[in-house]
Specification:
Elements lengths: L8 H7 L3 E3 L2 E3 L1 H31 L7 H28 L8 H38 L1 H11 L9 H18 L1
Antiparallel strand pairs: 1-2
Helix pairs in contact: 2-3, 3-4
């Protein structure tokens, strides 16, 4: 901030004309809107549907504990969204004023994935997922209780960890025979 003579980061960004994105300087609010739009579209179009399919290949939501199935969905979502959003970020913030080099682009993308994947996985697994589950349980407590009463006789859940692991192995064998 000494170079721009300002006292805050936002003032420094404004004084230089914004954030460098897509080869131009853009206001920070526009950059945030563009990133949010792309993240939402990727999550709805690719992340959520494919993550559910990947998790369903190994786990059966009717037989496995819901926490195991939700964790599998979270893991698949992070493993799909992190590389795709890192690719978009590399595309958005690539220094186009130096020209475009495919090898440099791919190296920068791989570096971004290596930086972002651990943080994305652990923050989703240990902060975001528990917080969202807490909020959903509080908001829909009566609906959840009503649904649990209706479904208590329909589902057969494993009683302990060994049965859950056995269910996963049986599900893997079913998938192997169908492929």
């Amino acid at each position: 901030m000494q170079a721009t003579g300002t006292t805050s980061v936002l003032q420094a960004l404004d004084s230089q004309g914004g954030v460098y994105m897509l080869g131009n300087y853009m206001p920070i609010w526009l950059m945030i809107l563009i990133e949010m739009l792309f993240a939402f579209v990727l999550a709805v179009a690719m992340g959520s549907p494919l993550a559910f399919r990947l998790a369903s290949r190994k786990f059966d939501p009717r037989r496995n504990h819901p926490m195991i199935f939700e964790s599998a969905i979270i893991t698949a979502t992070v493993c799909l969204m992190c590389p795709s959003m890192s690719l978009l970020a590399d595309f958005f913030y690539y220094p186009y004023y130096n020209g475009f080099d495919v090898i440099d682009f791919l190296c920068r993308w791989f570096r971004l994935v290596c930086y972002n994947l651990p943080f994305a996985y652990f923050s989703q697994m240990f902060f975001v997922q528990p917080f969202v589950r807490f909020v959903i349980r509080r908001l829909f407590a009566s609906n959840i209780a009503q649904r649990n009463e209706q479904n208590s006789n329909k589902t057969v859940k494993p009683s302990d960890e060994t049965e859950a692991i056995a269910d996963v192995i049986i599900r893997e064998d079913e998938i192997a025979t169908t492929d």
